[in-house]
Amino acid sequence: MTDTRWYAFSCIITVLLLAACTASKKGLFTKKTAHEAYAARITDAGLQQTALGNAWFTAAQKALARPLTVTLPYKETGYFAAEKPDAAGFMFSARRGERIDIAVSAQPGGRFLLFADLWQLNTGTGDPTLLGAADTTTWQLRHEVEKDGRFVLRLQPELLRGGNYTVTITTAPTLAFPVPSKTRSRIGSFWGDARDQGGRKHEGIDIFGTFRTPVVAAANGYISRVGLNNLGGKVIFMQPEGKDYTLYYAHLDSQLVRSGQQVMTGDTLGLMGNTGNAKNTPTHLHFGIYTTGGAMDPMPFVNVNRTAPAVISADTALLHNNVRNKMAVSLRSSPAANGTLITKLPANQVMQVLAATDKWYKVLLPDNREGFVESVTLSAEPYRSITIKNASALLAIPDSITAVQTTIPAGASIRILGAYNDYDFVRFEAFNGWIKR
Fold it and tell me: Where would I find the SH3b domain in this sequence (predicted)?
């Protein structure tokens, strides 16, 4: 860190510490997330109107307004540069009954404060709803999805601090499976399957097993009703603790609980059979979930067969490096071959590697567009060397009004790493920068 930058860093940290002291009484009776508290300190210190502070707030808004799309489970390793305020937004879908599990790690540990907060996008033009934030000591966050939808995880470091991070986003069921794991069972019929020659749709899942296999409580709660009906035969209704839905167990051979009985997760409620309209089918449990609005698909609530995120095979040594594409490539909004196309890039376009996931890189173009490209298509090596005929200004960015880093004299040898519009990104002695063609 240069003396000038160290001085600026020291001044900002001092101002933020002073702001934290004066703002502590104002926040005495309000609970803020770590990101909100830090943003308030920046504002109270008068730094929001500075170029650095404004860039931090702009990055935070961009991560929510223009997140990139990922599919769960997802794992990414990336890099935040200390000298440039930045943030990352990850948009994904999740269903009611699932639990979103988020784990973040950062290096160097203890010297790199990273904020992680989870939002749900609202339909229409409404602002996103803040659902929670990761604890800044454990960097973990869990959220039980109460409504199908799209969610955004925002990651953002504090000012003038940077480093590597790894984020993992997975899902898990919020209920236990209603048949003990040690017994042999399988799901043979799913939500929405046709019934009665298409006259109705299946409102649950069917779990097949041997006759009189135990069926168990999928949560703590109480038995709201034990009964008999034409469709379900011997049935049990269970009310999970603190939930607004009811669990329905049908086609039982035996009911081993009574109405009003308190039960714990894993307690045996009855034995699997084929009563009701299942008398001519193999033994199975019909498991359903009902709310006042009707039936819900139980699968997200109980599905334990969830895959792990793909191993990151893209070379993380290229993080924060400027690279070029060795061939024409597609920049996509998600790390998948069928991801939405952002643009097609001709060969040898310059981009910066922000993060790696699976076999993909998340990259930043010189025009600030972000997206994903396949890692095998990129290289950090120059693709040709030339001798320039006339002295040329080496620019910090591909823009004629930007700062000049140095002047390359006529006859100098340079190596070209890539291009963007009418500019080449070159290496000259110890400098990397842009020259006008």
Answer: 329-379
3-state secondary structure of 17: helix
Q: Would you say residue 192 has pLDDT above 70?
A: no
- Do residues 238 and 222 touch, judged by C-beta distance below 8 A? yes
Taking domain 185-294, whether its CATH number is 1.20.1250.20 is answered by no
Q: Quickly state the pLDDT bin for 418 (edges 50, 70, 90).
A: very high
Residues 6 or more apart whose Cβ sits within 8 Å of residue 21: none
- Pick the closest to residue 181 from 300, 307, 308, 304 (CA basis): 304
Can you tell me the mean pLDDT for 298-316?
Answer: 97
Contacts of 208 by beta carbon, 8 Å cutoff, 6+ apart = 185, 186, 187, 188, 282, 283, 284
For residue 416, pLDDT beyond 70: yes
As a whole number of angstroms, the distance between CA 323 and CA 304 comes to 41
Indicate the domain borders of the chain: 3-173, 185-294, 321-376, 384-436
Cα(302)–Cα(274) distance, integer angstroms: 22
Average pLDDT of span 376-397: 95
Pairwise CA distance, residues 354 & 263, whole Å = 50
Q: Which fold has domain 3-173?
A: Jelly Rolls (2.60.120)
Class of 321-376 per CATH? mainly beta
For 152-191, write each residue's pLDDT tens digit.
999 999 999 999 999 999 999 999 999 998 877 889 878 7
